[in-house]
Known about the structure:
This protein is mainly beta. The protein is about 5% helix and about 75% strand. The strands form eight sheets. Strands 13, 14, 18 and 19 form a four-stranded antiparallel sheet that branches. A three-stranded antiparallel sheet has the order 1-6-5, with no helix packed on it. It has a three-stranded antiparallel sheet with strand order 2-3-4, with no helix packed on it.
Amino acid sequence: MELVKNKLQYYDLLLDRISNYEERTDAIVPDAYPDIMQIVCATGHAILKDQSPQNDRLLLSGTVRTCVLYQPEDGTPLRKLEIPISFAHIEECKGLTPESICFVQCRAIGVDAHAVNSRKINIAAKLHFSASVYDKCDAEITENIVSEEYSLEILQGTHEICVPERIFCKEFTIMEDPDVSDCEGAQLIGKQCRLQLEEYRAMQGRAVLKGNAQVDCMMLQQDGLEVFAVHKTVPFTQIIDCEGLQEGADVTTRFSVKNMDIELREDGIMSVGIHAEAQLCVLQKKTLCAIRDLYHTKHQLHVEAKPLYLRSIAPVYELHTETTEEIQIAAPCRRIVELHGFCYSMKQDASERLRLDIQSEILFFDADMHLHQVFRAFQVEVHDGNAARKMVSGDIAVQCIAEPSTENTLRIRVLVDGALFFTDQLSMHNITAVEIGALLEPDADDTSMIVRYVQEEENIWEIAKNYHTTVRAIHNANAIRQEKEKVQNQMILIPICDK
């Protein structure tokens, strides 16, 4: 007997994990700077310098460039201190190898600073990691058996599956010089960047990505008395070589900002350099044929099988929701300088709800024009109907809109948009060997037909297998349609095959 096998090549998702952790350090105020009276705010952005897949682990390292804005004791204008914080983080992942394909998003989602004394600062950066690791896999699935034995009965079944057929991770750079002539003499104290895809086109062996980089900057005026925000949209077009990519292929795209450099020039130009990475995942829907069961009507059958597990990625789940939150603030808000929102955790529960943990960062002036920084965390629940499936990380965009509610309260409207993936695990017993054994013991009499009443619903295949006959024989003897698989509440004739 010859096993007919189908070879499936795909990329298995070994790791999909969201992690949050904190890196902390102490810093001394330089001698040339005045003493600290009060820290006003702190910002930071993460630079991911290295992501190294190793055996059973992923090593991530880089630097958080933080900026602390403080009010000096001598009453002079606000001063800024730039303090770098190095980080190294390990994600454990069994089966990961140096050849695995890794895609990592890293972001500083909050910086907290407080003065230990007038010359010393303790600063903590909260880091968010979203890591996906893929490994190339081959699977052989036995879908049929070629045999001269006419008494061999085979039950086949099909499985619909969607798997990553190819994964491409490509780094690229965006350069732009937007005009900021109205910011002459200002100092940069904070920056953030998010890439958005506007248009995608798959060509033969290439992918064309068009989008925008949303660059948000916080500035300190030259006199040190005013803080304001600057928002710039930087368009980009990238043509990425993707070997084997077919025109019109179903591709999902994610972006990661590895580093961002911004320089304020004296001629009123802001030089922006963004080092980014794009992950392109080519999804392929396949119909797999496999043997669900088999038996021999005359002989014993020795079957060897191994469990086979395949992870199927469901189509993209589009997420659009909003909520309104009211938060307490220390002083009445006169003007909001900047307001950001970020989703730092996604969880499912048994009641088909998806819970998003959102953190907002608000920078505002009070009635006396004192600057305040506030962080607030809250949850957004979505009834997604996908609780039975495991969720895979996706890109979530959070937009926050705020307005004063009462003197010491802000009403924040949170808009959440994004795309998520869900996975199902397909498990089967994959046949690896089949041998025909001894003859089955003949019945004591020469019965050629059994009459049986089937009350509870039964599968015709199981009836045929138990009586060592064939499904076709039962169908023909009872004039049952060939596509009908079950019988119930009827008398059936069961022909007995000669042994």
